[in-house]
Amino acid sequence: RGVGLCAARGGAWLESGRIGHICGNAERSVESRAKLDNRGPMMWRPSLLLLLLLLRHGAQGKPSPDAGPHGQGRVHQAAPLSDAPHDDAHGNFQYDHEAFLGREVAKEFDQLTPEESQARLGRIVDRMDRAGDGDGWVSLAELRAWIAHTQQRHIRDSVSAAWDTYDTDRDGRVGWEELRNATYGHYAPGEEFHDVEDAETYKKMLARDERRFRVADQDGDSMATREELTAFLHPEEFPHMRDIVIAETLEDLDRNKDGYVQVEEYIADLYSAEPGEEEPAWVQTERQQFRDFRDLNKDGHLDGSEVGHWVLPPAQDQPLVEANHLLHESDTDKDGRLSKAEILGNWNMFVGSQATNYGEDLTRHHDEL
């Protein structure tokens, strides 16, 4: 059948450290899929499309022995803007560079002369303003939006890399039919998965992906823009996808289908005891964690709200914190906004360069920054 289904029927289990996914093996049951999915970096079973994209880009590996049993694979934690120390006081602006540009582009800027670095920063300033209200100033909101944009570049790049595969009619959008056929293969109506042993499992996967697609498709035209496809593939990054993330997590864990996650269901997602095996101490710790921190209203189980608080925990708005910092350090006239001159006057905090280590010029067009 289609390339997508053929790849899926081949089966694969991919994990590197805590990053793991499945690309369905038709012989696995729905329950065993859910068990494997616990190891993934997201808190629900990823779409089959996303799994195939990972296969295409060569993801590989095996479960890490130090990955840890505590279910953090289901919890989405925002990555730090930079792993560098925030040490402006000693003239170390690496944290700010990586926050403002993204880590890879920050490395590229480090190879530029000061003149070229400032010139490119000027073009970024123009772009930040154009993306906002275009009034000639960079506001706090525009600066925050830019930082958030740069931190999601790896997500957008992964979608762009696969766009042509799924936009088969080259109209600049990906329809549900295109995505379904590329992922699961072409079938005549009424014959879906008739050549697959575990057809019911695939039908459930297809229905689940279609439901997620409909939520991502905000204008309801059954055609995904790049932003909508990104929401489909990475729902944890989009507030309007929160409910679907919670629903998928509940479906994975709620084995008795009562609409809640009981403590035993929570534990079963983490640990399967061998006959006669004594329950490890870490499992007992997880039971206590469930009672003390997951079950917020202390009624003995998790409802949808509590599942959401667990897998999509409240987090500090890191881009806003950094935007406030850059504004404070660069707003010389203290009017609460930044002019292009003010940003360029403090250019070394935003982008930096190494004049004595001028390497290969950037190949990325400035519009991609």
Automatic annotation (TrEMBL):
InterPro entries registered for this protein in UniProt: EF-hand-dom_pair, EF_Hand_1_Ca_BS, EF_hand_dom
CDD domains, A to Z: EFh_CREC_RCN3
Tagged with keyword Protein transport: no
Cross-referenced Pfam families: EF-hand_5, EF-hand_7
Entry annotated with the keyword Endoplasmic reticulum: yes
GO molecular function: calcium ion binding
Ranges for region Disordered: 60-89
Annotated EF-hand domain residues: 154-189, 204-239, 241-276
Self-association state and partner proteins as the record states: Interacts with PCSK6 (immature form including the propeptide); probably involved in the maturation and the secretion of PCSK6.
The family this protein is said to belong to: Belongs to the CREC family.
Purpose of the protein: Probable molecular chaperone assisting protein biosynthesis and transport in the endoplasmic reticulum. Required for the proper biosynthesis and transport of pulmonary surfactant-associated protein A/SP-A, pulmonary surfactant-associated protein D/SP-D and the lipid transporter ABCA3. By regulating both the proper expression and the degradation through the endoplasmic reticulum-associated protein degradation pathway of these proteins plays a crucial role in pulmonary surfactant homeostasis. Has an anti-fibrotic activity by negatively regulating the secretion of type I and type III collagens.
Protein name per its UniProtKB record: Reticulocalbin-3
